[in-house]
Amino acid sequence: MKVEFAPINIPLKRRIQTVAVLQWIFSFLLLAEFCCGFFVILILGNFWFLAVLYLLWLYLDWETPCTGGRRSQWVRSWTVWKYFREYFPIHLIKTSDLSPNHNYLLGFHPHGVLVAGAFGNFCTGPSFKNLFPGLTPYLHIMPIWFGCPFFREYIMSAGMVSASKESVSYVLNNEGGGHASIIVIGGAEESLNAHPGSLTLNILKRKGFIKMALKHGAHLVPVFSFGENELFKQVANPKGSWLRNVQEKLQKIMGFALPLFHARGVFQYSFGLIPYRQPIHTVVGSPIPVKRNLNPTTEEIEQLHALYLQKLRKLFEEHKSNYGIPEHKSLIFE
Fold first, then answer.
1. pTM of this prediction?
2. DSSP codes, 263-329
């Protein structure tokens, strides 16, 4: 394989952007394991009493990820996130006003490999606040990550909370409105479809978010992130292949998927885990009004689900030409 090296005279700003993305990749892939290892070292070393104190804190603070988390505006405003967003770059596109008098459930599509658009737009920077004043975004992620010592504090500081039913209910149950739950509807399973050019969404059987919106009267908002699947290449894993079968079995056991992805490196463009510099345009659609229904019937859930799919497809079709999607390509719902 011929290796394509980066030019020596690349501007310093672009180098800083690459380093910012590198630390994000480290945080996403290795920081949780590093924190767990550090915790074990504390237990086995001379500072075991610090580990005991932290365990006590963990016990007292266990429910926080399900009760709105503990965000830090300081962490969310770190300069490193500015360079992270500029690397791709990441943009948030508004198509309609969202009144702060209501609560909203934003369905984010597609998952991509590492959900860069959701993190960049809803956990860092001022874009969401500037476009939708009065709304506070909560990005829901897998509950397993909040069991990792120290790491849980870091992700909560960025505004992430648990994706458990209790957590979503807490966010959407705000009587005064002004809360926005962001849920990556396709989940970890959808990351296995995150190949460049892929428009396949795992959504036909995903109806829990519809039921949650009905129970709380939260307005539904489809969100499509153009460019999300273009950031990495993935080892071919068509459905039915031995690799896909192994990945799906591991996903069921562990709760998260293991896509075998690759892209570029820090000083060369041929291989590595740094994503490609591909623009991400996260388009926030118009709200679907939802009336509160504490005991929705199956038929009511199905009807609202069908309407959501219709609005999501419309959002994609109206904007695809702006972001390089050929006219003949459309979303595939599975």
1. 0.95
2. -B-SSBSSSSSBPP---EEEEE---B-----SS--HHHHHHHHHHHHHHHHHHHHHHGGGGT--TT-
